[in-house]
Amino acid sequence: APPRSRADRLLNWPLLARAYLFLGPMQAAAAMSAYWFVLRNGGWHFGEKLAAHDPLYLQATTACLSAIVVMQIANVFLCRSEHQPLLARSLMSNKLILAGIATEILLITLIVYTPWGHALFGTASIALVVWLFIIPFALGMLALEELRKWLVRACPNRPTTTLI
């Protein structure tokens, strides 16, 4: 696709709505769901207090952070185009994004599974089941954003309002 016109605004109402009313809530839901999933699977009950260094609390906050990272990895692919489907461009076409994702995966792995990551970031190791809980949220966000893009392409004459 050609570069954006110099006359086009970088920030507009549709972009803000997409980020804060569509993609953002899905990412927040994934993060908080992972947090509650770990707490509930660890035997925690609503109203029960956990100390800041309680292993269950550390695992829950680590699951929340991990969900944010997973959702952001999905988001970077979704944001390559506002209108075109994910697979309209090769996933391998931007080597810098792929290097960034690989670095992000390495960092979250070190933060979650190493003693220095635990000490520096206040994390705790999480089980594979937590990752398996998180991944469907990313797949759901991918599917819903692809549906949104399809609807945008199906209704090309919708007006957009410029913000800045």
Descriptive report:
The relative contact order is 0.18. It is elongated, with a radius of gyration of 19 Å. It is 65% helix and 0% strand. With 164 residues, the protein is mostly helical. It is built from 5 helices and no strands.
Quickly count the helices: 5
Number of strands: 0
Radius of gyration: 19 Å
Structural class: mainly alpha
**What is the global morphology?**
elongated
Strand content: under 5%
State the share of residues found in helices, binned by percent: 55-70%
- Helix and strand succession? HHHHH
Largest sheet: none
**How far apart, in Å, are the first and last alpha carbons?**
23 Å
Low-confidence stretches: none
- Overall mean pLDDT stands at 89
Task: Describe the structure using short key phrases.
single chain; elongated; 164 residues; mainly alpha
